[in-house]
Amino acid sequence: MTKPAPDDTRTLVSTDWLLDHLKDPDLRLLDASWYLPDAGRSGLAEYQAGHIPGARFFDIDEISDLRSELPHMAPPVEKFMSRMRAMGVGDGHQVVVYDGAGLFSAARVWWMFRLMGHDAVAVLDGGLPKWVAEGKPVTTAAPVIRDRHMTVQRRAQMVRDVTDVARAAKLGDHTIIDARAPGRFRGETPEPRPGMRSGHIPGSRNVFYQDLLNADGTMKLPAALRAVFTDAGVDLDKPAITTCGSGVTAAVVSLALERIGKTDHSLYDGSWSEWGMYADLPLATGAA
User: Is the predicted pLDDT of residue 4 greater than 80, yes or no?
Assistant: First the structure.
């Protein structure tokens, strides 16, 4: 049996913690289930078929910057505020995010709340699969929602654009961590999105997000997380930039960095969906 990680309402909480706090008046629970296009699964359909009591559905594709051609880029501040108000999520709330894969897309929403200046947010360790496996309650009932204002102070240092990443790759003053599967990182496996080149950002290191998780979908303990980073050649003394295919699993790496006490990390929002699209950006293949 996997030893549980300590609960931390700023990073990761257990299913037992959530059950104990499920009826807290200032808890706001979000189902952020999202899947790759080729997965054949719908986060909204699964939410409607059964979710943890009180959960609202957080649509990663809709609560994004729809002006961008890139997938689910972080939304403008005003849009985030309006969507959270409509969902009844605001100041003074402890937010807990989960997903239907275990620990996958929920981390993206955790990062988004942190980007918007809201620290009282945690991911449910093991997500809905662990919750259901333990026989904890699910429902199809819609939650009662009351408006709540959210004050947003965007932390620009938590997100990076292509210019920032190109500079960091050239200067080598950051450690760039790629969360994609090893075959995609090495350029051996075709990208799931059409028109993408195969390979990785020169100088980046590969930490496949699943290597940060236990078999039950929970996150490994901090000492084991640190070992994964070290074994991958990540220089933890440098500021970190996380990246992946479209900025989702990069956030799992960001969460793991936070769990080991490393706070100087940012996320490349465009990730390989952007970098892999432009022939004039440098590309490397093979192992790091």
Answer: no
DSSP state of 278: -
The question of whether 18 is a catalytic residue gets the answer: no
User: What distance in Å separates the CA atoms of residue 200 and residue 188, rounded to the nearest whole number?
Assistant: 11
Q: Are 72 and 246 in contact (CB under 8 A)?
A: yes
- Computed from CA positions of residues 83, 87, 90, 95, in that sequence, does the dihedral angle turn out positive or negative? negative
Model-level pTM greater than 0.70? yes
134-185 pLDDT per residue, tens:
999 999 999 999 989 999 999 999 999 999 999 999 999 999 999 999 999 9
Reported as a single tens digit per residue, the pLDDT across 8-35 is 999 999 999 999 999 999 999 999 999 9
Nearest to 82 by CA among 109, 63, 108: 63
Tokens of 185: 């990182």
Bridge-partner residues for 13, per DSSP? 124
Side chain identity, residue 242: T
Which tokens belong to 236? 């933890």
Closest C-alpha among 174, 170, 204 to residue 186: 204
Residue 5 has a pLDDT of 73
DSSP, res 231: H
- In the set 109, 150, 244, 248, the catalytic residue is 244
